[in-house]
Amino acid sequence: MKKMFLAFCAMASALAFACMPHAAHAAGNPFGLVYKGAIMENVKNKVNIHPVSYTLHGLKIAANVYTPAGYDAAKKYPAVVVAHPNGGVKEQVAGLYAQRLAENGYIAIAADAAYQGASEGMPRNVDKPYYRTEDIHGMADYISAYPGVDPNRLGVLGICGGGGYTLNAAKSDKRFKAVATLSMFNSGQVRRNGYMNTQLDSIQERLKEASDARAREAATGEVSYSGNIDFDALTDESINNIPTDLYREGMLYYGKTHRHPNSTFRYTTASLMDLMTWDAMDNIELINAPLLLMAGEKADSLYMSEEAFEKATGAKTKELFKIPGATHIQTYFVPEYVDQAVAKLKEFYGKNL
Question: 3-state class of 319 per DSSP?
Answer without folding.
Answer: strand
